[in-house]
Structures are given as C-alpha cells and as structure tokens.
Amino acid sequence: MQTLTDINPDTAIESYTMNITTLEGFDSFKQSLSDPKTGASRVNLVLSCVDNYEARITINQVCLELQQDWMESGVSEDAVSGHIQLLVPGETACFQCVPPLVVASGIDERTLRREGVCAASLPTTMGITAGLLAQNALKYMLHFGSVSPYVGYVALKDFFPTMDIKPNPSCINSLCCEAQKAAAARHNSPEAVAAREAAAAAEAAAAAEPLHASNEWGIEMVAENEEQSAAPSGQQAGGTSLGESSAQNGAQGEDTKGKQTQSGGAPGIGSDVKVDDLMAQLSALNQGS
Ligand SMILES: [Zn+2]
C-alpha cells in the first residue's frame, strides 16, 4: 500500500484484508463496495484478480446484488494464456451464465490441484494480462475505444481472440435472469426505441448531405458532354475552375488529334463532336443504304 502511494500520491487507497469466500468475508466485501447511506454501489468498476473459482462466484454474486459492472481476469494453469472479461449485469453474460467445463462436469476444483505442486507462473503473462485489464478499465471508465466483453491472450501464438458473450436466459443465478429482464425492458422502452430511431434518422441525414459542404476552391464536377459543349474554345470568361480548365485543355488536344485523323472523308471522332450528332449521322447513313 505504501509502495502504491509512493508511485502515485494523488490516489486515495483503502485496503481490506479478508477471505471473501467465507460468510463474514462476503458481507465485509459487499459493505466495502456499498454506500453506507443508500446501500447502492459506491464504485465505478470492480476489477477481479483472484485465483480461484469460489472467489469469482463471490464477486459475481456481490456485483449482481449491487448491479455493479466488473471485469474478471485470469491466467491459465500452464501460465501461457490469459483472459479478461467485462461483466455488465443483464447486458453481458455473468460469471455463472457459462460455467467452465470443470464446474459443468461437477468436478471439485481442489482435486485438480496436485498436492505440493504449484501451478506454473510466468510474470510476463501475468504482467500482460494485468496490463490489458488496466487498459480496458481506462477505456471503459473514460469512454474511449471499444471494450470487448471477452479478450483472450494466447502467448504461444501471439493471438488475442475476442468474443461477445451474451447472457444466458436460463442462468442458474436468478439475479442474473432478473437483470436480463430489466435490461430487455430498458431496451424496449418507448424512450429507448425513440432514441434508436432518432440516431438512425440522424445517420441517414448525415449520409444524404454532400461530402464536402464547403467548397473553398470552387471545384466542380462536370459531365463530359457538358464540358465540351460549354466551352469548345477552351477559354471561358471568369470563374473558370481548375477542374474545368484542365479538362478543356485536354479536350483541345483531343480535338487536334481528331482533325488530324480526318482523312478519307469519314467523320472524325474528335471530342468536340457530340454523341447526338454522331447518332444522327449514323442513322442518316443507315437510311441512305
Ligand atoms: Zn448469468
């Protein structure tokens, strides 16, 4: 605690030492997060950095009771992969929505631990996972970027899989099911529907607007046939735009070429010849034959 205060003296740190998986621990933990007057949560976000399933279940339960968003983190037993997960009551899966295989098969977690053998530990994997957790906590609280509901880290392959984990409507935790119903009601409320429609309309209006509303340089788009008939001489009095004049210079060049190839009496395909004129000439030829 002294170390943390030394690193950043502007932070206010409260420390609690307890085993949150005991009955008293559960109460003390919940109390530490609650406003003494209202009983509601007094924190913005809970970061979970525990190393066992029971402790995660405890945090899940307390956060569901307080309607508190939290982030879970973990590193695998072999220490070469990690994950972080965002849990928003009712909106994303809670920790019990999708139980791990060990729990789903009814295996006691303690039997998996071999006596006297410590799980592998690699400070770099721990550091990267902790860094990802801190990074996403900042993004979440300061509202920048996007926070994936689940980010994995597979160290051996430099792979960061992300996943969207939807809540399970038949979750074994009844508080989670209630939170899901409340979230659905929020999403379907007239205000929420109206807000979504307004956002869609604003998006459509923005898409319909010209891409560059202010045209500082007076650049215009001109259809090819228009530009040729408008100023065949390549000179236009006043207000000539850059695009137009260069297009006209090009047209003049074409024009000369067209005249040069006008041998043998065939009509030249100069660019100053209108398509309509060509069509008229063609139909005259057809009629004559
Ligand atoms: Zn759940």
TrEMBL record:
<keyword id="KW-0067">ATP-binding</keyword>
<feature type="compositionally biased region" description="Polar residues">
    <location>
        <begin position="242"/>
        <end position="251"/>
    </location>
</feature>
<protein>
    <recommendedName>
        <fullName>Ubiquitin-like modifier-activating enzyme 5</fullName>
    </recommendedName>
</protein>
<keyword id="KW-0862">Zinc</keyword>
<feature type="region of interest" description="Disordered">
    <location>
        <begin position="225"/>
        <end position="274"/>
    </location>
</feature>
<keyword id="KW-0547">Nucleotide-binding</keyword>
<dbReference type="InterPro" id="IPR045886">
    <property type="entry name" value="ThiF/MoeB/HesA"/>
</dbReference>
<comment type="similarity">
    <text>Belongs to the ubiquitin-activating E1 family. UBA5 subfamily.</text>
</comment>
<keyword id="KW-0479">Metal-binding</keyword>
<feature type="domain" description="THIF-type NAD/FAD binding fold">
    <location>
        <begin position="2"/>
        <end position="171"/>
    </location>
</feature>
<dbReference type="Pfam" id="PF00899">
    <property type="entry name" value="ThiF"/>
</dbReference>
<keyword id="KW-0833">Ubl conjugation pathway</keyword>
<dbReference type="InterPro" id="IPR000594">
    <property type="entry name" value="ThiF_NAD_FAD-bd"/>
</dbReference>
<dbReference type="InterPro" id="IPR035985">
    <property type="entry name" value="Ubiquitin-activating_enz"/>
</dbReference>
